[in-house]
Amino acid sequence: MAQLGNTDLDVFPLCLGGNVFGWTADREQSFAVLDTYLAAGGNFVDTADVYSTFVPGNAGGESEQVLGEWLRARGNRDDVLIATKVGMWEQRPGLSAANITAAAEDSLRRLGTDHIDLYYAHHDDADTPLEEALTAFDGLVRSGKVRHIAASNYSAARLQEALSVSRSGGLAEFAALQPHYNLVERADFEGELSALVEREGLGVLPYYALAKGFLTGKYRPGDDTSDSPRAEGARAYLDERGVQVLAALDEIALVRGVPLASVALAWLAGKPGVTAPIASARNLDQLQPLLTAAEIRLSAEEMQRLDDASR
């Protein structure tokens, strides 16, 4: 387990993404993945109110609903840390005080719980004053409905400003950041943003940790047979740099006797400040490499090999 930033949350080194629940994983598949993750020692599940509006006919909130049904069926709420988000769902858009309060109540109802362990601002909202949003989040923390708050998709400047607003007003502070970060998406996080979160002691929970499946090695030059919902996005990484990254992953995975996905996630987990990468699995076959990643610690030489290949 690893401490999440300066919070009292001890989390498994692989956060299970819930974006597939109610999307590519039906209720039965989702329950199986959750059961196996928990049995392996996992305790940290990430979802959002906007999941899974990707599916025609879905209204939103399906992922939270499935997770809530599983929690009630298993009676294990105290064994699981739940992270969910507000701000990107078209029915609950933005970070106004009224929207944050209403969205939190909706999420609590779907999850069937009285508190959220980590509640994210899913995206920065330039149209709402930071003080208004942070005051609303603070109210949820003070009421016990939320334990800690976090930011997703914030720039370094806005994250620093948010922390300053919280401190000057005595409000709850963002304790973690969820950035888009992986072996083939490094530029937006590394540098000013990574330095800020490390300096401030925030936990880092990267999303798209496997680059829409590209870092599993499933997508290779000349192979366009997959009809996965994420296939087109994954194939966008099949440039010269992407091929170099796959080659480096192949080398390390072969020597270690583990899947490519495990090595890619272990690289993320080995970066300064990263608490737990977020990755999802729609079935048990996809889950196993994620669990294996939680057991791997790459050497300095392996980290450097991957750093060089992905520059």
Give a nutshell description of this structure.
The chain is of the alpha/beta class. It has helices spanning 27-39, 62-74, 97-111, 130-143, 156-169, 192-200, 231-235, 240-256, 260-269, 284-293, 300-309, and strands at residues 2-3, 10-11, 15-17, 44-46, 81-86, 88-89, 92-93, 116-121, 146-152, 174-178, 203-204, 278-280.
Q: What is the string of SSEs from the N terminus onward? A: EEEHEHEEEHEHEHEHEHHHEHH
- In the CATH hierarchy, what is the class? Alpha Beta
> For the report, how would you describe the main beta sheet?
8 strands, parallel
Mean pLDDT: 96
- Compute the number of helices: 11
Give the helix proportion (percent range): 40-55%
Q: Specify the CATH architecture.
A: Alpha-Beta Barrel
CATH superfamily: NADP-dependent oxidoreductase domain
Q: How far is the first residue's CA from the last residue's CA?
A: 30 Å
Strand order of the largest sheet: 11-10-9-8-5-4-3-12
Shape: globular
* Alpha-beta classification: alpha/beta
DSSP strand content: 5-15%
Radius of gyration from the alpha-carbon trace, in angstroms: 19 Å
| Unreliably modeled segments | none
Number of domains: 1
> What is the number of strand segments?
12
